[in-house]
Amino acid sequence: MSNLTIPVKQIDALRTLTFVIFRHNPADPNSTPTLQRYTVEEADSMTLFIALNEIRENQDPTLQFDFVCRAGICGSCAMLINGKPALACRSLTKNLPNEIYLAPLPGFSLIGDLSVDTGKWMRGMSERLETWVHLQEESINLSKLEERMEPKLANDIYELERCIECGCCISACGTAQMRDDFIGAVGINQIARFKLDPRDKRTDGDYYTVIGDDSGVFGCMTLLGCEDMCPKELPLAQQIAYMRKKMALATL
Amino acid sequence: MKIIHTDTLVLGGGLAGLRTAIGVKRRGHDVIVLSLVPPKRSHSAAAQGGMQASLGHSNKGKGDNETIHFSDTVKGSDWGADQDVVRMFVDTAPKAVRELAAWGVPWNRIQQGNHQSVIDGKHVTLTETAESHGLLTARNFGGTQKWRTCYVSDGTGHSMLYTMSNQAIANDIPVHERMEALSLIHDGKRCYGAIVRNLMTGELLAYIAKSTCIATGGFGRLYRSTTNAVINEGMGAALALETGVAALGNMEAVQFHPTAIFPAGILVTEGCRGDGGLLLDANLHRFMPDYEPEKKELASRDVVARWMETHIAKGFGVKSRFGDHLWLDIRLLGKEHIETELREVKEICQYFLGIDPVTDLIPVRPAQHYSMGGVRTNFTGQSPTLAGMFSVGEAACWDMHGFNRLGGNSVAETVVSGMIVSEYIADFMESPEGEISVSSALIEKFYKKEQCLLASFNNKDHTENPFMLMREMQEIMTNNVAIFRDEVRLQEAVDKLLELRKRASKIYVESNAKGANPALVAAYRVQRMIKLALCVTYGALERKESRGAHSRQDFPLRNDEDWLKRTLATWPKEQDELPTLSYEALDITQMEMAPGWRGYGNKDRIDHPDTEIRQAEINKINQQFSQKHSNQSDKKSDDSANMQEALMPYKHLLPPSLQGDNERLMEEK
Question: Which of the residues B112, B118, B134, B423 could staple to B655 if both were Cys, CB 3.0 to 4.6 A apart?
């Protein structure tokens, strides 16, 4: 079986890639937004994580971008890659054309170049929607057996909890680009997650007060860019439709 | 200078830091968490497989308890762990998992009835009882006698971190994101907070606190080949080291995970093997049973990683243009299992390798994964030498892992240590020692020092590039200070690191650039990382034995007689070339479990004379209780607690709120 080789797709020929990258440093009053070009020799299995670090280490130490896990699980590195929001760390250059345009994720405040402040946005969303389990009783007896839960329900909750708050859905959302207070698919999905959770004592009426208007579930124009761009392939359209129905009924 | 005051300053917004902050806040104290990144992006999120807690609900967990978890953990540590701390940990782990269950973690649950499973390469049917239905289930992990690892698919760390972070928000705990501590403010006896740099604006500020807790995770990025996130550069440990007073423990104890995908180094969980996955060589031969007939793929990580490298060295690796690797085969687990319980693994394979693990083999090779060593603390989490400085999680050497950590004990430690240490931090602050009086001159001194350091990089006579120095250091560590070590390679690494340290004093970056300035960040970090690398390497050079993950080819035996002790590294003066090493002996006469064979790995060792004496005492106590037990057969569970108490009392070390016994569905018969 020695004919087995590493199953990375073979590339016919490695290319010289041109990166066209949005540059702006808001901390510097002299900085104005520009597009800057860099060329990089492509390598086997090259991801944008590898390419951007190569640019920073060898060509331009001032280039700003965010990576943490570089494995597609922490949600730090979402950016516009040839116009589409995606996780840069798991985007392989071999799937991209010779010219690669990179821009920061719209809808979030710019820290510099490709780095945006998703953290502040997400914390604000969490505070506003209270994205935690609101328990019936304050104190938990840690020595006692845990509450039981149907195995399927636990799996269903996890399905919605897989969101990594990367911000792709916000940058792909027509409403979010028009109004700053729209909580987007990320927010609506989180409410759907807590609504599903029997440990959370909140009622539909409680949820209505936080998402029952145009900045919440009724602001969605059903363009569904969120679901198309979600790197975790979450069922966002279904959750928005479900929550909209529930919230409409909650007013009756 | 802007100064921010608080009661407790927590450095790090991962699981350990957040749980500590919640505990302190609930005791009525103010707390601020500093985090390099938004807290939900911390490396805790990368923990896939699960969290060990001896609930014992499921078929294969039946009969599990704290004592078996204790025994597995001590054996895993190769007797390097502090057994008191291990007892505190195993006792609190079920409480931690239950707290998280109440807070919303969607732990996988037991489904009553028959299930298909894979054990030792064979398909088997396991039956779960009706009374266990809906309680937490658990999967198998390496080095454990029971299936004990509670999990949420293979996104356990993600779910835990989101729940914890949301709880921190619910408790109104401020997290100052993109903030990096550059030094601890102290007077040689007492810690008063930290000098901090804002990673968005470049602003320098001071945080003054009655207690400071380092929860910054591990230092995997000292290595080129690592599963760790790019933020795991050991800066918390470096800050402690640079006080010159606080010590780092067992820095040479570095874990390599058997299954990092090759060559990217991204982790695929131990759950792959726990659920029945196999390791194969170039001939598709399952080789682990040849080396470890009992535990096979599920020996501890240090042991499996060593056999993998041994097997590759014998020529059985799969050749590729990036070097040799082995295969991980999870095809036998089936599509449904992979797509529900190993979905992150599937995604990683799909995106980074272009393969589907349902039908394809996964190329793997061991990579750096975990730092057992770190900021040395006592059982309360406080530094024994710098009052007011605490540490939790991977950043700490609390010391429950000794020289090898078991899979599933890491995220468990983060939460457990946060629960315990936060109580001790609150106690400390409520005691007379908790008060501080710190002079503005002292704050100013530390502030100026960091200001000067940052300015010093802007010297046009200097030519070194910090990114290149980082690369070179990572190469040295991966080539010379990895799974197999010997004097020649370690000495060579020390020499090269000393050379690198000299060059690192000549780094040039444009340090007055506005804003984040990534080159400046690399400049000050790499200087500190080289110091940590010297602690790891010099500690490894001096430890002339093999224990757990520290494997010396020139000293292949574990040597309890000379080396059953913890390495302590300090750096008293900045101009010192090397860390100062001292050693803290582990007292066999107080151990609940005297040193012995782990049940896997090397059977030969050099015993300490105390071992035989202690073993005789332990046998005597065991005998007394088993005689007593045969007279009064209905009191067994009380007796096992009493026997444990006679061997090594520990309950008094736990905070009162965490001393309760853990309830289980079925007590062992």
Answer: B423
- A44 Cβ contact list (under 8 Å, min separation 6): A8, A11, A14, B321, B322
Judge whether B176 counts as a catalytic residue: no
pLDDT in tens, B427-478: 999 999 999 999 999 999 999 999 999 999 999 999 999 999 999 999 999 9
Residue of B nearest to A72 (CA): B348
Q: Which candidate from B169, B509, B661 shows the least CB-CB separation from A127? A: B169
Reduce the DSSP state of residue B111 to 3 states and report it.
coil
Task: Give the count of beta carbons closer than 10 Å to the beta carbon of residue B3.
Answer: 12
Q: Is B254 helix (H, G, I), strand (E, B) or coil?
A: strand
Reading phi first (left if > 0) and then psi (alpha if -120 to 50, else beta), residue B217 is in: left
CB contact under 8 A, B108 and A155: yes
B353 has a chain A CB within 8 A of its CB = yes
The 8-class DSSP code of residue B314 comes to I
Strands B31-35 and B2-11: parallel
Whether residue B321 lies in the annotated active site: no
Which helix (H) or strand (E) segment is B259 a member of?
strand B254-261
Angle in degrees, 0-180, between the axes of helices B15-26 and B156-170, rounded to the nearest 10: 30
CA angle centred on B366, ends B363 and B367, rounded to 5°:
115
* Separation between Cα atoms, residue A195 and residue A193, nearest integer Å: 5
* pLDDT tens-digit series, residues A102-140: 999 999 999 999 999 999 999 999 999 999 999 988 789
Q: For A153, which residue in chain B has the nearest alpha carbon?
A: B106
Contact A130 B110 (CB under 8 A): no
* ipTM of the modeled complex: 0.95
Query: Residue B558: which of B613, B596, B589 has the closest Cα?
Result: B596
Active-site residue identified among B69, B186, B257, B365: B257
**Within 13 A of B296's CA, how many CA atoms are on the CB side?**
13
Inter-chain CB proximity A63 and B518 less than 8 Å: yes
Instruction: Look up residue B603 and give its two tokens.
Output: 């059977």
Print burial letters for A212-235: b (CB count within 10 Å at least 16), e (below 16). Answer: beebbbebbeeebbbbebbbbebe
